[in-house]
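Quick one: structure tokens for this chain, please?
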Amino acid sequence: MADYREAFVGIDVAKLRNAVAIADAGREGEVRFFDEVDASATNMRRVIGRIANRFDHVHFCYEAGPTGYGLYRLIRSLGHECTVVAPSLIPRKPGDRVKTNRRDAASLARLRRAGELTAVTSSIRSAKASAIRLPVAVSRPKSVTYMVGLIEPTGRSAAAARSNRAISSAL
């Protein structure tokens, strides 16, 4: 009889790069940093495929943020389970003040395995433009550029011009 292999994957999502960590099933399962990859859909699809080939069942999770639900839709379209986690409800140790992408990804994987994370419930829409509401677009243009999938350049004025173009074209 073959071993049933299950893994819990935590992804620390950022604008340009995502950190990925894997926790093996069971209390004594190893938690290890897997890789840090570009945040593009093609690179994430490749990494998810590499992880899925190694395990029978994979549970993904990442922290909700301004990047929106694009990663959630990608993981679900590949046939895997994904949980978007509320950042304010992630248990943290009182003295743990060091925050790195590796540690956050490993912590998400460990907590997902333990079942200690609270998922964000939201109506997930397939069309990018339908997910943007006018009050959000006006009050938080930077968040809208993340949701639409545009990565803003480093310059402040160029970023403002790009977000304004994204808002006007999405509405």
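The mean pLDDT is 79.
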